[in-house]
Fold each of these.
Amino acid sequence: MKNKKRILSGVQPTGDLHLGNWLGAIKNWVDLQYEHETFLCVVDLHAITAKYDSKKLAKDTLSTAALYLACGINPDKCSIFIQSQIPAHTELCWILNCITPMNWMERMIQFKEKSIQQGNNVSIGLFNYPILMAADILLYDADLVPVGEDQKQHLELARNIAQQRVNAEFGKGEPILKVPEAIIMKNGSKIMSLNDGLKKMSKSDPNEGSRINLLDDADTITKKIKRAKSDSKVGIEFNNSQRPESRNLLMIYSILNNKDIKDLEIEFENTGWGTFKKLMIEQVIESLLPIQERYKVLIDDRHELNKILLKGRENAEKVANKTLHRVKSHLGFY
Ligand code: TYM
């Protein structure tokens, strides 16, 4: 166990998880879990940084944990836990708030994008979000953080905080915090919207049709893919920058089908959108079906889910509290 590298990652329980969350992050966790010591949290404190429904938070939190399992996370190999149940996350976040320069935070692209979406309702929490994420990661001395492309800048921030603001200033030559590395998959790390191949698939897009949720039924998947943006050309290409929608759907198809993109480009050289979309619909339904079937069983077994989350919490808490104690003692607390 000791020689295994440690992984930490998480997803926000904000509504339904979509294909981007699965192909960009969770699928990678599933592949990595047997060779690594893996901590996976449901980041519910991040989910309240934007307007949210308090009646749905607990349900969505549990549903996200069940989806981790349904996607293939093995609870005997990984610790799955709920972020808000471990107070060390918010405590380390506060400490890191106080040593992180404001101008580092002002560069955060995701904050800028999300605050435009949220207009006058932007919370301090949304601005602070990347520091809480740094705390999540640094508490576990994570070596590796498997995330989608959009989290690259947040990972860089976590690295800079650990290296420059904690280790360099308080470490007296000895590292206090491990400096983590992002693992971003070559394919799947940036799944785009079904309506616009230049825009990321996102839970916060007000248009439901822009994403395929992991729990969408066959009818919904069919409708969404039929309505997905296409173009007037024949043939499904990957490398034509004028055809981002073709690139995106081919990428998704290739991951789900486990076929090389180059081979698919040849196969679909003369295929029209109608035929390709039909194949795409069949593939997405077939790939999501086993996840949905496992999910149905898991979400009804509250006892088993709670047992898994309790075990995860106990494992996580031990590691997190130890790191927090180490940080506090180096930073001069009594
Ligand atoms: P969230 O919930 O927005 O996204 C969860 C994961 O899904 C990835 N992702 C995507 N990947 C490919 N294509 C997309 N369209 C797409 N949309 C989302 C994200 O990159 C992410 O890996 N801030 C994090 C949650 C977090 C976290 C952490 C992650 C909080 N603390 C600590 C890792 C480690 C987030 O974006 O969640």
Note: The longest helix spans residues 302-330.
Amino acid sequence: MFIGEGPGAEEDRQGLPFVGPAGELLTKIIEAIGLTREEVYIANIVKCRPPQNRDPHEDEAAACRSFLERQVEFVRPRVIVALGRVAAQNLLDSKAPLGRLRGNWHSFKGVPVRATYHPAALLRNASWKRPTWEDMQVVRDRLRE
Ligand code: URA
Ligand code: URA
């Protein structure tokens, strides 16, 4: 299961997660570890688009929390990948920077969680692609166990 931040403009139009430019890159990331989009579940911390794509506020994330928890309970994913700082901090209830949340296994409702960069961030800064690939290899290895 991949968890992002919240719908962007295209996601808001279609009512589906990660169907815009960041979604195209996410599809490639998923396929790079030998999976297809049909084999993974994709969700967001907040279910409505924050105006001007600002970070979701704490009360907004809190309002969507029970939906996210039920998505995880229904899907029962083997691994969760938190995409970006907002997803990682919300999921792990932490204020630590992404750089500190990356590189270790965490847990959400008993499901192992790995944090990595958000695909939209990779579109802005290609130097984060290599560490993201390293994170995804760790995820792939875990799924092979
Ligand atoms: N960015 C996100 O965090 N989620 C989406 O669904 C699309 C872009
Ligand atoms: N499939 C997904 O991967 N995510 C949804 O939110 C709905 C269907």
Note: The chain has a mean pLDDT of 97.
